[in-house]
Amino acid sequence: MTEKVGVYICHCGSNIAGKVDVEGLAKWAGEELEGVVISRDYKFMCSSLGQELIEEDIKKEGLTRVVVGACSPHLHEKTFRRACSNAGMNPYLCQMASLREQVSWVTEDKAAADVKARALIAGAVRRVQLHESLEPTEVPVNPATLVVGAGITGIQAALEIAEAGHKVFLVEREPSIGGHMAQFDKTFPTLDCSACILTPKMSDVGQHENITLLSYAEVEEVKGFVGSFNVRVRKKARYVVEEDCTGCGICIEKCPKKVVDEVFEVGMGKRKAIYRPFPQAVPKYPVLDTANCTYFLKGTCKACEKFCPTNAIDFEQQDTYLDLDVGNIILATGFDTFDARRIPQYGYGRLPNVFTSLEFERLCNAAGPTDGKIVLRDGVTEPKSIALVHCVGSRDEHYNPYCSAVCCMAALKFGHLVMEKTAAEVTSFYIDLRTPAKGYEEFYDRLLEEGMKFVRGKVGEVSDAARLPGEEGKLIVQVEDTLLGKQRRIPFDMVVLMTALEPRFDAKEVGLRFGISCSMQGWFTERHPKLDPVATMTDGIFICGVCQGPKDIPASVAQGAAAAARVQGMISRGTVLIEPIVATIHAEHCSGCRICNNLCPYNAIEFKLEEGVSFINQALCKGCGTCVAACPAQAITGAHFNNQQIVAELEGLLYDAARGTQGAPKPVAVPA
Amino acid sequence: MSDERFEPKIVAFLCNWCSYRAADLAGTARMKYQPNIRTIRVMCSGRVDPTFILKAFSLGADGVMIAGCHPGECHYLVQNYKAMRRYEMLRHTLLAMGVEDHRLRLQWASAAEGNALAAAINQMIDQVRALGPLDWPRFWHENAGHQEAIARLPHEHAEALEVSA
Asked: Of A135, A345, A596, B123, which residue is most buried, by most CB within 10 angstroms?
């Protein structure tokens, strides 16, 4: 081989040097590995001095390949590629070996660490010599953006982008935007009225010239790639012609059919068969619910049509499909709440006066089913004592191991509202109280002063079986008070279960549709948990709010704005570079067997009938390499991961095992 | 040398998106695992050509691990299912060739499962250590006359088919 390889071993302070003999490794690589002309070690390769070292060697020594033994390529591959590029070398002619994450940090024994480090360097050196120069493709970024989910997070993201002067398509599954925040009464810890701060933003969205609001709609299909996605949106039939409807609400008034509202009022209140979820709904157009509409069930009624002053009711309306072209996509799909019926010992659904936290929000809400009166399920009796049960479905290995992050503060808020609105005593049953943000601990102190009671212990059971005097007709909370070290039975009139936040029921499906991954639970996975929290592994697709993991309103809004900022960055740059790691079919070797055709989930491979060969559309190829591995004729090469490169890396990795095999590197004695 | 513990050499193909990041996480969290594993990063477990695994064995690996995203979590949507199919077929082939089951392992590890990956690596190393060396290169050497043997095969086959009168 004629390539001149430079090997650079990073000490990473003592992170690598503390375990691996870095000087020895550099010396060994320079002496023993074929092709290596320079081998150095340096304190911090990623520093500007370290990078200059590489740049100078490329210029002065005429290096044609570079190997950096340092941290994970996910951390600094870009850094070293840029350094090579600065010195006039193609950035793809550089290879990293992860000596830190894969050797020094995970290995106990120093001698063993040396052996493993040598193997990784040998693999990288052999591989890099077969690297090819690659050029990323530059594609334009469509300035229009799709935002999916119009809760507070999606609203914030959409408004930020629209305010910056760019077109936004905002898709919402429900008839109105607003999300969960629209259901809340007050927001902790400031006790702002939720509707008062949300509805102005909702109407901004409704009126914004740059926002196209598609409510009662869902994304059905996503094609394309960063910069130019094609999205198919299904707009469900409202049976109300939006162009003609003035939102006067006469149809709602005249509709004779009342049904329980399971979505917005969580079963606590009623709505009509033609309805708006709540008075301030945006858009103002009602939706006709065909499952309950008398006309759709029995063929007669049409009261709404008769009374509509603008003839906006259309019983024949069909779902419509819209094809949108966008450059970036923001997902803000939010959460579902934990179904408290899954914990039968808490009695939800069986004991009428056990409520969920979302039901209690509706009870507290002045626009809710009880006009803001906190009353028992009978609708009249004011409770004299209320228990708030924390961690219902959170921090519980049977349901969800994680902390839902908002319930402690919501319980404190409920405590305040109960004491403000009623004379009831309120007790919180907690495992740990978590108040880790601005003003939260102070709010907890305030509730302690206001007289809220706290019992530390996870509730074992909520029952109506009275055993002791004073328990008749009450709900008895059975708990181990871990501060007293005692089992206690405490009777209450009302029990509120602080239910966990869970990923949307269809989060995994949605993830697949947009080509992003989910955690085991179903939260969308960010590119980096700390340093890249709103980007995903798929370029051009961003996530924000609770769909990424439980968080409160301030954090969700911050993420919504962050995702918008990232998208605006993409728009103002105007173009985006696409990794050249794609597969190519060499027509002269292709036998036209079509084995590869069905392997591609992106439909990037098509069969050219006239020529009898398959062809890869590189704009659609994402570079997974599955077709490369499947081709029986080896007619497909995967750029940067071709067969020769991978086999060369294997040979290097097994440098000390491959004795006597033809073509293997010369054996090297393993240090004792 | 002979009374020393056998230290297997295991090659692991890690997918770029989940399992390589799990390995990164194991590192960041300073989880210690045995050093007998040497990793190759590929974009997807679907990239792992079964011949790479045979090649690794023939180069002296005692075991090969393929690690990818959990089913349903593949960065490329469904390509890990293809890795799974290939793994099953290759496993049967290897078994038929006398290569023990534990020498080839398919491991799912999400980017958050550094501990699961480290535990799987440790378990596999222990299992392969118990099996002892595979040493395919040595067998190539011992079977130096294999080319002639292959050349003889059709002849032997024809002879076996001949029915004596």
From this structure: A596
